[in-house]
């Protein structure tokens, strides 16, 4: 195994025990990046010399006994919405041509303080307004979409051109590409990770979180990111880091896991449903109790998501939409222009509906510790495909299909984790989504880690 293929936790342990240096790890990841970028295009910008210099600094600090923690010397990518001082934040748009950040975002500053090594900025759909990341190709099948809008981050992690990455999630933009590329994606509780210095799509729906190779890795990155920042009005205090870490054991006795009877298995590809149901049965085998649940206000979810996101996005872009509309891509400009036509009453009704939805989801989650469901209704579609046709003959736009199962966690602000649970008949990854109570990341990480460990234990020794 090459160093670039190690999980964050494995790499951190190898660095801690001096079996691997940050320089060796970073060089390995950069070599993989050079090999994969022509085919996958995960990065908007690569800061290779900075990464090598930071890796050398990390190596000297660790050799001198000043190791800062598990992220020290670990190479990572940041979605190209996240400001790093002196580095462009293009947000995937010509609107940002020539832009360079003047200061670090909270996320970048915290990762730098933890000693992480920045490899570069990963591609996003323009201003995160989409579920495909058209610049980037799927890590498993380059003829298919990467998912979005954190597609570059997910592909970099899956391809080995980053040991971990950070993305944003407004309607599924961490979980969708993570599921489609076979990696782990965590959307934390709204406000747990500060968004200061992160370009907004929709301020009441935006989240920042990690994309990693394992659930344990996601917890390690969350430890570095979480915590109150008064510059983000939605920021909340974080539980102690130790309370979010998965336990050493794999048992789930005493946990009640909700299995949706409605919504989450409607209009879902048969291979996706089969893989997720097998994974849920695996959780029962680990001691969890499965409880059937009905998803509240299901028929309102899509309308509420779009009625919140569209006008908030338009408000953010009001000035540039008026002055340089020709610099936006057509698909994004149309959505922004549509937001200007939406009545204020529709937005206010969506906010009222969101309040009711949060209340009903809280009630549901008083009876179970979390809900387990598909992360996406279908695996990665072919690049350029605009619609999905379901077995009942109905068609659905690709973006609507992917956002449909992920948006409830954005509307409520509750945490959600996606974990790889298998592949479809074409060999494309399938993700299972775990949705939990506010600040319930520890439970999600515990369950995801238990599933991951059990699956690893069941895999034949010769399996790849």
TrEMBL record:
An example Gene Ontology molecular-function term: transferase activity
UniProt entry keywords in alphabetical sequence: Transferase
Name listed for the protein in its UniProt record: Asp-tRNA(Asn)/Glu-tRNA(Gln) amidotransferase GatCAB subunit A
The keyword Transferase appears for this protein: yes
Presence of keyword Metal-binding: no
Species assigned in the record: Streptomyces globosus
Alphabetized PROSITE patterns for the sequence: AMIDASES
PANTHER family: AMIDASE AMID-RELATED, TRANSAMIDASE
Top-level taxonomic group: Bacteria
Every Amidase domain range: 24-445
